[in-house]
Amino acid sequence: MHETQQTRQQFTGASKYVLDEELAQIVNISMALEMPLLLKGEPGTGKTMLAHAIAESLNMRLIVLNVKSSMKLVDALYQYDTLTRLNDSRFGDSNRDVSNIEEYIRMGKIGQAFVSDERVVLLIDEIDKADSDFQDDMLDVLDQMEFDIIEIDKTIRAKHRPVIIITSNAKKDLSDPFLGRCNFHHIAFPEPEMMRRIVQVHFPEISAELLDHTITAFYRMRDFRNVEKKPATRELINWIRALKADPDFQVKDLVKGDIPYLGVLFKKSPDYAIARNMVSRMRL
């Protein structure tokens, strides 16, 4: 496809997304080369939010394909609504022409991105949930920017090549052919200084004292041993929101090791029990 003005747009971040230089470079080169960008990293590192930020920054519509383990590629391309057609033929109370199968074709998320009159951001979230055949066949479609609707013998070709962001929580290895057709970036969990910047974006008026002590306590809790699901950025944001909403909370409580609202940070029962035990020891 010919390069368009939209292709040459540069992503520099969004109102609620703090961007480092390396990530900005790989996003922009992926758009320029018209290649999918594969993002890996633990949950809560901002992989999904990056797609939202790109859409906001470049004023594009975001289409999200949430991958499920049982999903077939055709479900992401289109669906033939045979049940509705059967009901229409039986009861005859629809304005649709039952003999025209095309009236019962509904675009899936990839299909919606292809037929859109404007360029969109297509987020394919948690691709590692799918099997390798789904992954490789999907990239064939995204390479060719077209797919066939068998029921009506029609080829759907993309009006515009989407900006494609693919995320993986690295729970399952992706195939070599898949990896070879994507650009790649690993989003590491933010270091404390980067996290300070993220928190300040969400809470511009936060006091230096509250910022310092919540960040310190947060990273200390992330180091608790045997925790399966460590608190991530969204948990920190929600925790600070909870602290600010509590009229009885005082920052000096954190200094003493009194950590309220552990249930905002730890979402699994075993993790919560570990956290309560560790916090009790911190007070000693």
Summarize the structure.
The chain is an alpha/beta fold.
Could you walk me through the main structural features you see in this protein, from its secondary elements to its overall organization?
The model is unreliable at 1-7 (pLDDT under 50). The chain is of the alpha/beta class and 284 residues long. It has 2 domains: 21-186, P-loop containing nucleotide triphosphate hydrolases (Rossmann fold); 192-279. α8 crosses α9 (208-222). It starts with 20 loop residues before the first helix and ends with a helix. Strands 2-5-8-1-9 form a 5-stranded parallel beta sheet, sandwiched between helices. Strands 3-4 form a two-stranded antiparallel sheet. A two-stranded antiparallel ribbon has the order 6-7. β6 and β7 form a beta hairpin. The chain contains 13 helices and 9 strands.
